[in-house]
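Reminder to self: keep the SMILES exactly as supplied, no canonicalising. Ligand is zinc ion.
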Amino acid sequence: MKIVIFEPHPDDLLFGPGPILVEWINEKKHDIHVITITDGRACFRVGEQADSENAPLMSEDEVATMRTKEAMEAIKFIGVPMENHHLFNFHDADGQKNVKAGIEKTIPLIKNADRIVFPSNNNSHVDHQATHDIAIGASKSLALKYLEYFVYFIPSYGKFQEDSKDHQFEYIIDEERAKNLQEWLEIYKSQSFTKYTWKMYTRFLQKIRKWIYSIYKFEEIGKYYNF
Ligand SMILES: [Zn+2]
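Structure tokens returned for the bound complex:
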């Protein structure tokens, strides 16, 4: 199976599809690709994070370089071949400005895919919404009727809603997987510069054993809150 995963920022791969992605990699039979949409440069911009005033003094270019490197290290850590990592390098927080170019870059990558994995619709984060729109836009322009549409939601940006309950499922992880995810988190050193964020991330991975995902079909696009 060719699986193409969309990550809006370097670190969303872990908090979105991360837990189940580890299982797909372990199955050793899939051609797994990751698209990192933005370079994460805005993460210390005042107002982007709860404690951004405590962020280090770095230029946004430096932040982008650091986070892009972290995205690549994460790919290496989980064991996806480096040539299957596609960095779009859009500036983050630019949201909808990137959608058109994002669709063009995405088309060749998903045209022969079996499953795409991307953030939910009605997303409160502009880049996560843009990523959803890129994935859907590219799929629609190719009319990918037999593709599996696998949706995740980063909890702070919204929730799965009742209207597509039948499409959702719970994914439970064991302690070993939870430990693996905590080791993965250590790669995103940039996020440890802001203490509140780091504490929140660390606690989340220590505590959460249940993830929710959902799966849809082409003809269901636009029919549900999450899709
Ligand atoms: Zn994100």
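Points to follow up:
The first strand starts at residue 2 and ends at 7.
Residues 2-219 form a domain with the Rossmann fold fold (CATH 3.40.50.10320).
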